[in-house]
Amino acid sequence: MSVSDTIKQILVSHVYVEVPVDQMGEQDSLRDVFGVDSIGFVELRVQLEEAFEVTISDEEFTPENFATVAAATALVEKLLAAPAAA
User: N or C: which terminus of the chain has fewer CB atoms within 10 Å of its end residue's CB?
Assistant: First the structure.
């Protein structure tokens, strides 16, 4: 499963977004279209860290990085590509 598909599954199964996975657009706003609230964003951060075995720093936990599925995917892919020692 791709990073994007995994994020969509997390949104449905852990953040309880009611939009079906097959109707989620990569550029849809997590807040405005999917209705993710502040607690949902914290849960999404935790679930992404667990699913991908990455650490999302406070500096990376920004509205820009969590605005859309595409933005969250780009963040995770960047973290996965970073050297483990970083």
Answer: C
Burial 7-19 (b: 16+ CB within 10 A, else e): bbebbeebbebee
For the chain, the average pLDDT equals: 95
> Could you give the domains of the chain?
3-81 (1.10.1200.10)
Distance in angstroms (rounded) separating the CA atoms of residues 36 and 22 = 18
pTM over 0.85: yes
Alpha-helical regions (H) of the chain:
3-13, 38-52, 69-81
Residue 39, token pair as written in the block: 């607690």
Contact indicator for 13, 6 with CB cutoff of 8 Å: no
